[in-house]
Each structure stands twice: as structure tokens, then as C-alpha cells.
Amino acid sequence: MKKTFASGNMAIAEGALTAGLKFYAGYPITPSSEIMEYLAEKLPEYGGVLIQMEDEIASINAVIGASWAGAKAMTATSGPGFSLMAEAIGLATITETPLVVVNVMRAGPSTGVPTKTSQSDVLQARWMSHGDYIVPIYSPWSVQEAYDLTIKAFNTAELLRTPVVVLSDAVIAHLWEPLTLMERGEVEVISRKTPGDPTGEPYPPYKPDPDLVPPMPLFGRGFKVLVESLIHDERGFYSPRDDGYRSLVKRISLKVLKRLDYVYEQDARFTEDADVLLVSYGSTARSTYLATIELRKQGVKAGFLRLKTLWPLDDDRIRKTSNARKIIVVENNIGKIYLDIDRIFKDREVYPSPVLSLELPTPRDVLEAVEPWL
Amino acid sequence: MEAQPSLLSRTTGKYRVSVVIDRCKECGICIFVCPIKVLVKSSVLNKYGYHPPDPVNIDKCIGCRLCEYNCPDFAIYVEKVV
Amino acid sequence: MAVTRQIHPLDKHLRLERIPTLYCPGCGLGIALGALLRALDKRISEGAINPDKVLWVGGIGCSSRMVFYVNYDAAHVIHGRAIPFALGAVLANPDLLAIVTGGDGDIAGIGGNHLIHAARRNIDMIVLMFTNFVYAMTGGQVAPTTPRGVSTTTTPRGNPEYPVNAVKLVGSLNANYVARASVTTPHYIEQFFYKALGMRGFRFIEVVSTCPEIYGRHIGLRDPVEMYSELRKRIKYKHKPSLEEAEIDWERGIVIGEFVERSNPSLIEILKGVRS
After folding, report:
1. Both A1 and A26 in a single domain?
2. Is C114 inside any structural domain?
3. Structural domain tally of chain C?
4. Hey, which residues 9-38 in chain B have their CB within 8 Å of chain C?
5. Which chains touch C (3 or more CB pairs under 8 A)?
6. Domain coordinates of chain B in residue numbers?
């Protein structure tokens, strides 16, 4: 254990190193670039390789290739680069490739405001690629959590053989806070399961264990593995029939949902007596938390729920968090996670409270945004 | 049960030319590239409806393997008979 | 049911459950694949290559599908991105020998930027680009290599654009090996690939192929033999030709040969500190 002082971007890089990162490919983009710069310095010391690619498409595809070659692999980017990675995220889901993509969110659409914050990519991150799949998404609210959730993202990716997204933002990226770094052994680090040695018989790389996750036969070990982007059977052979198609797309979603207990995390405070529940996440939750305390000082029985996992959501757990009559969703976008919270609390009054602020919204901004619903 | 590939095979003299009947797609390239016209389209119909070549003039084969090297479907090969 | 017992001399290199290929009758790609496997077989039997370390990577298109016919580690990935996928794999495990296969659309069209930067980096991999002058799998649209004037489904009034000469493009960069062969000269495909397998750095071989079904028929060549024979007439082998001589033109002829041979340090050699 080591105490230090770091930015959110540095914390993400350190979290990746603690989790066992061995390959990083990326392309410079504000406000994520320091992650790559930091790793360019440090990753070789950890026996890893970092390469700056010609674009984000190349970066994510190189990360997928590296993962199949046995490396824990990651890339980091921001909105425009994240959009370019969409197709390859789909490749990673169908080929069940463990990897981590960090999106340090900035204001969009398009070039938007490169240096300023936003939370507008939260639904894009879920469904950025075509087809059916579930990609777990984590959203840190502090420098420490940027570190912790990056480790968690790697663990989830390796446990479930899936791409995982970390949604940071420009505020967290450049925020400096105390950070406690863990040594190997002080924190759980999960690595993908792999099959035993090849037997000479053809090995089915997509044959799942009871947890629905197939052991991963890596390149170069004699498995003659076929990594296939087409809908495939357990051997990796193209299989354009309903039964094969259904079993594959269901399995790659169900394997994640089966471990919802592991994947889904939240942080609930003052929920016991709450009449009003403020739901928030990421950097905006910092101000929402202070606003909650302020409301309680004013005599409003306010509760606070912060989503650390933005997808998949544990509907039951969220519903059981609070008996509050009113639920207000505070987020720095036009109202996106609100859609889920409204669905989950369908028998209660749920209100969107979008702040749309290029800077970190202040607690006063949050209070002003929630006031009309109180 | 393991499927047994049916071969159309002819040998006389120094070379054996074998055709894997069900791999042939009747493109005709082997017949075209053979410098001494060993191969002739056969009347055999394979399971995909193609007529594989028949090395009827096998006695003239010089073992150049142009048929084997130019077959797009791994359907013909030449062996030296010892 | 497909033939599963090994019988043809190259059968041990194939996933026999998937043979016959989906390629149309007379498709040049199968000829090229045979030549590649003979060269690989030779290197393996000489003990120069461990078959467990061979990795085939293909994007999308007929040529890219070669990777799922070969009995090796293989990845059939997304359109145009085989090169970066292979780059990630070899950087993460430098013992791997990456062989990328793709058509001119996949490698020089949608993947063109990756081709340029892979050659510039001299990253250790072999890229085999099969040029058949058309987008075949999607039904005959204009490709980066389609000659001017040719009518395709998306240039019904004739192609108004100039084609790319990938050999000149890659040769102008930092690739260690640049060659061109034709499916009508399978011995040169075998010879050039054999040589490339023994080298380091970025190695690029353009294989001029025949698409009798989607291209040949549309330019008046009625069957695979006619397409093969017309291409063969246009092929001119030159011994170590210069890049300036790397003509690829249906009217003026197609020059094949080994255009570039260098021994510049590869990216992996530099990263490992073996060479600088």
C-alpha cells in the first residue's frame, strides 16, 4: 500500500498497472491523453508494450489482437475516438475478448468542447455497436475510485471474457486527490481462465463452462483457435441458423447477467428515512452528494444513491434502496439514466434533473435543478 | 463415421494423378494448364453436380504438377510412382 | 458431408471440415492458398517455423476468408482491420508469425491507412493482398484497383477514377519486402512467400487474382479458363524490377517480381533492443 497524490487520469493508468496491464494501444485525444503519456513512461517497466496507433480504430483492434495473444489490454479515448471504436467493440463482444476501454467523456456532439466535461455518452457506451450484447460500464466519482474501478473493470473483463467500459470525464481526469495504491496481493486481481494443454483434438474455443464463459485458448499455444466475427458455433465456424444465433447472442448477454452480483455496484447514503432520493453518478454525484447534505440541513428528508455501475443495472437492488416517494435523477446530460430510473421506479414519481454544465456542476447548480421537483 | 473421399486415380509409368472427386468445381483450369493434355473432362457427376477431370492420357504425364499447383480446390495431385 | 480424411498433400494444413471452400469455380484465391501452404509446409518441414506460432488474420471479403480454411490459429475480424489486429497480437507475443490476408478493398481501401502505417513501422508481419479489381463478395462494386473505364455495379458509366498501385505505395515506405505475383504463376507466389517467411519486418506481397464470376464475366471473359488465360497473357515477370517498373495495367501489362528487399530493423527488433 502506498499513499500518493494523483490525477484521475493517472489513477486509471495506475489501476491498469495494478490489474496487470501488458498492452496499451491508443491515439491522443483530450482529455484522455495523460493516460497514454503516463503509461508510455511506466508500462515498459512492468514488462508491457505501449504503441500509439494511427487512429482509434487501429487502437481498439490492436487491443483485441493483443488480448488473444494473452496480454491484459486496454485503450483510452474520448467521445470522437470512442465513436470510432464502436464497430470493434462489437467484435470484442462476439469474440468474447477481455479488454478495457476508458472513455474520458467530454462535451459533444462531434468535436463539441474537447476540454470540458459531460456525461452525455452513458447510453452510447451501452449500445455503441450494432447487434445484441451487454457491455459492463463503470463510472468513478473520485481519483481513488478511478483507480479502484479500473481494477474492477479488468477483473470483470477477465472473469466474463467481455469488453468493459470505464466512463470517466474531464473533471475526474484532471482532478488531483490523495490516492492509495495497492501492491499485488493487496487487491483481488482476476485473470482469464485458459484451457489445459492442447490434446491434438480440435479445440472448441467457444464451448462454455457452466458459468457460460468459455476458457480462452490463446494464440501460439497449439489450439488452432479460430477467432470469428461471424455468428459462430462452439468451434468458431460460421453458423447462420436460428438455433446457433440465439444460443450465442443469449449466452454473451446472460454470462454477464448471471454475475450481476459481482458486476453491479452502488453507493447509497441517507436512504433509510428518505422522502426524496437523489440519484446521480460520476463527477456530478460529488455535487449531488453535497446538495443532499444541504437539503437535509434545510429539513428535507433527502437520500442519495450513486450508481458506480451504469450497465447492466440491478433493478431489484436499486428499487429496494429506498422507499422515497420522489426520485430525482441528476446527471450532466439531457436526461439519460433517468430513463432507466423511471422504468425501475415505475410506481413512484421520478423526475429528470439535467444540469448540462461544461464545468463540474456546483451543489448550488444541483439544488437549483432539483428544486422545481421538491 | 469418417467420410471416405472418392478418388479418380490413374497410374501408368512414372506418375499417378489423383482427383478428389467431390472437391472439383469443374473450372477447367487443370485441363487448360496441362502442357500435354493428360486431362479430359469426365462424364462422372460429383455430389455438387460437377464433372471432375479424368487423367486419361496418364501415360504421357511428365509430372510437372501444373494441374496440382493451379487447382483452386485441392482437388488434384500428382505423385511419383517408385 | 465433407471429405475429412487427409489425402491431398496439403490437407494437413487445412480445416478439412470446411473444404470445399465457398469460392466460386475457378477462383484464383484457392490457387494462391495452395501456393502459400506449400511454402509454409517447406519452412515448417525445414524446422524454421513452429506451426503453433503461425497466426492467420483476415478482415472481410473473399480473400480474408482464407483464414478459416487453414488449420492454424486464425482470426476472421472486421473489415479493413486485420493489420492492426495482427499488430496487437505480435507486439503482445513476439513469437507469433502473423500472416494477414485480404483483398484490395480490405487492405488498400477501407484498411489503407493501416497498410501505410504498418509499412512505415516495419512491423513484423506478412500482408498478402489479393487484387481482383473488384469488390467481389458484395457483388461487383468498384474497387480501389478497378481499372479506369470498367463498368461495375456502382460505376455503370465506367470507372472515372485512377486505381491504386499498392506495390509502389508500400515500396515507398519502410517495408522490408515488397513483391507481386499472379495466380497464373503459383510458383512465384510460393517462392516469394517462402522468402518472406524467412524475413523480419513488414513484408507485402500483392497477388493478382482472378474473379471469374463477379469480374471476369462483366468484362467479357466468359469462363474461369478465359479469365485465367487473359490474365496470364498480361503477366510479365522481371528479375528484381524497380518500383518505377511496377506497372499494373490491364492494357499495358502487369509486372511481377520482387521490387523491394531491405534488411531494416523491424519494430519488434527495435523494441526488444536487438537492433536500433
Report:
1. yes
2. yes
3. 1
4. 18, 20, 22-23, 25-29, 31-33
5. A, B
6. 7-80
- The answer to whether A163 and A157 are in contact (CB under 8 A) is yes
- Tally of domains in chain A: 2
Q: Which residue of A has its CA nearest to C66?
A: A226
Judged by DSSP in three states, A162 sits in coil
pLDDT at residue number C5: 74
Averaged pLDDT score across all residues of chain A? 97
CATH number at residue A59: 3.40.50.970
Mean pLDDT of C196-203: 98
Global ipTM: 0.97
C-alpha angle A224/C95/A192, rounded to 5°? 60
Lowest mean pLDDT among A48-62, A247-261, C135-149: C135-149
The model carries a pTM of 0.97
Count of CB pairs separated by less than 8 Å, B with C: 91
Contact criterion met (CB below 8 Å) for C127 and C104: no
**Among residues A240, A263, A286, which one ends one of the domains?**
A263
- Pair A258, A303 in one domain: no
Q: Check whether B3 has a pLDDT greater than 70.
A: no
Range of the domain at A338: 264-373
The answer, for C252 touching chain B at a CB cutoff of 8 Å, is no
Residues A140, A44 share a domain: yes
For residue range C41-57, list pLDDT tens digits in order: 999 999 999 999 999 99
Share of chain A above pLDDT 70, in %: 100
Torsion angle, CA of C80/C60/C170/C243, rounded to 10 degrees? -150
Looking at the structure, tell me whether residues A208 and A297 fall in a common domain: no
Enclosing H/E stretch for B8: strand B7-12
Nearest CA to C99 out of C54, C53, C69 is that of C54
Contact state of C3 with B5 under an 8 Å Cβ cutoff: yes
**CATH top class, domain B7-80:** alpha beta
Residue ending a domain, choose from A222, A247, A263? A263
Q: Phi-psi category of A353—alpha, beta or left, where left has phi over 0 and alpha has psi -120 to 50?
A: beta
CB C109, CB C59: distance < 8 Å: no
Q: Hey, are the CB atoms on A227 and C75 less than 8 Å from each other?
A: yes
Q: How far apart are CA A154 and CA A166, in angstroms?
A: 10
Give A63's contacts in chain C (Cβ within 8 Å). Answer: 88
The amino acid occupying position C229 is S
Instruction: Please report where in the chains the cell 476540454 appears, as a residue.
Output: A115
CB-closest option in B3, B26, B68 to C3 = B3
Let me know whether A352 and A236 are in one domain. Answer: no
**Residues A76 and A207 both lie in one domain:** yes
Sign of the CA dihedral running A210, A213, A214, A216: negative
Inter-chain CB proximity C84 and A62 less than 8 Å: yes
> In Å, how far from its chain's centre is CA A236?
27
As to burial, measured by CB atoms within 10 angstroms (0-12 exposed, 13-18 middle, 19+ buried), residue A200 is exposed
| Pair A89, A216 in one domain | yes
Picking from C96, C112, C104, the residue whose alpha carbon sits closest to that of residue C128 is C104
C-alpha atoms less than 13 angstroms from C-alpha of C7 in its C-beta half-sphere? 26
In a domain, C1, yes or no: no
